[in-house]
Amino acid sequence: MKKLIAITFSLLTLITFIGCTPGDSDNKSEENTLTPAKGNKYYGGVFRVNESEYIKNLYPLSIIDIYSYRIASQIYEGLFKFDQQTLQVTPSLVESYAKSDDQLVYTFKLKDNVYFHDDKCFEGGKGKKLTAQDIFYSFNLICTYNKNNQYAHLFTDIVVGAAEYYNATKEDLSFIRTPKGLEGVSGFKVIDEHTFEVTLIKPNSMFLYNLARPGAFIFPREAREFYGDDMRTKCVGTGPFQIASVDEDISIILSKNENYHGTDEFGNKLPFLKAIVVSFIKDKKIEFLEFKKGELDMMYRIPTEDIIDILTESDESSANYKYRLQRVPEMSTQFLALNNQSKVFSDVNVRKAFNYAIDRQRILEYILNGEGYMEGYNGITPPVFKNYDIGEIRGYSMNIDSAKYYLAKAGYPNGKGFPKITLDLNTEGEQYSNVALEVKKQLKDKLNINIELKFSPFAQIAEKSIMGRYDFLRLAWIADYPSPENYLWAYYSKTLPENPNEKSWPNLIRYKNPKFDVEYEKALAATTQDEALKHFMKAEQILMADAPFIVLWYDEGYRLIQRSVQDFPNNAMQYRDFSAVYFDKTN
């Protein structure tokens, strides 16, 4: 009954939001009423999209999952963002920027027409104008210790004074209220109302990428002080959309920010859409049926058994094609994380045995029906980055003799005496369940090892992974910025907590190798991209030699969109910017 009530409430919320009455048979036509804009574009319409898992946290410093990120990135903005088509770093809240000849001092000139969303955290409920002081506040908060702050690493090893500030707040949080604490991080400086300066310890090739990541989204002091931990869903940003309603586990509705600063190439004020409705249907078959009925405007990841029908129905050479299929190799790697500090997987021989036992080709061809870009024979970095040839990285492919050799070397000949272990995975669709069952079968058939499978909601999996309370689990690493570094920073040992019982993010597998750290640091300090990529490659080769996880496959993104959806290009990062999306009246 509670579920039924929740669903009914969500529907009524949507009907109320779009200004229709429950008895109106024209609800859908009214909510999708379109008005002309310049350049043959249209204003209006409610975009419906589904996510297979519910959000964990929309507070910028606590965003660690792709489901939260996709929603939060419509609400918040950083100084920079990514171009949806090219994925190049591009200004967002900044009008211009400059850096010193020694590449240590960055000066950012903010746009003069940016306002935070109207919200009751402000006096009179009217959103205030963005200033450099807001950047100063948000950036200092990144450098402040908090158990839920997952992004201190963005600045602590990069910005002058950031590590000292963080350590001082970790030792005593009241430091932030002392005269020294109120001065903030010494490397952050407000020059004037619209100018902000950052001083680095040394040149860093990833710095601008960091400023486009979710942890660097800007929000006002007023919101943090008013909502506190309720910022999980009480969001106040500068983005094209803002929270209209949250129905936990059922739906999130975003409404148009009427005061958004963005414009398109024709001078149209953005965004075009009236609203975005995000549902959370876990079953991909049900989601696909909803899409085919026109109740969803896009669908990401499709049921493998429907691929043939989808290819036929999305063939744009046919005048009667029903919808568009967008395919692209993704910055996404599917793998099994091994807890490198657990009793069983702390032994590299066990990790190698498991790696050699898995038949990745069978998983891709027969379990996924080819819905993947390539088998995971190389590194953790997917094969989508220019001038970064993962073919040079030696990974693992099925070799039963090697698997048995390393298992025996670890003290478990033919699996004898191997302890009971569990593979944890979330409940996101049948595809991953089938993969887990196949992994279980292969380990039994080839190594005589029995494993248990445990299915849990995503929020529980996330908590287990961060706390290290697992043997091994299924994960996907999806880039939130387009660089091989996005896949390697998660294994930098200096992000590990001193206490093994504390949270570890992003180093979920708790990997540690000083040789890896050296090459990783050299890449960050590189002054050219070629030099950085060279050291990232060396670091990844060291990583893979330690077999710290099992790379299964590299993703290919299958995305369906309705014919009426325009200006919504697909990209390798599944980075979504709905600010310029519109519905075409002629389709």
Write a concise synopsis of the structure shown.
This protein has 587 residues and is of the alpha+beta class. It is 30% helix and 20% strand.
CATH superfamily of the largest domain: Dipeptide-binding Protein, Domain 3
Question: What structural class results from the helix and strand content?
Answer: alpha+beta
**Count of individual beta strands:** 21
CATH topology of the largest domain: Dipeptide-binding Protein, domain 3
Question: Can you give the mean pLDDT?
Answer: 92
Main sheet: strands, sense, barrel: 7 strands, mixed
Oligomer: single chain
* Radius of gyration, CA atoms, in whole angstroms: 24 Å
| Overall structural domain count | 3
Query: Strand portion, in percent?
Result: 15-25%
CATH architecture heading of the largest domain: Roll
Shape: globular
Contiguous runs where pLDDT drops below 50 for at least 5 residues: 1-25
Q: How many H/I helices?
A: 18
Give the fraction of residues assigned to helices.
25-40%
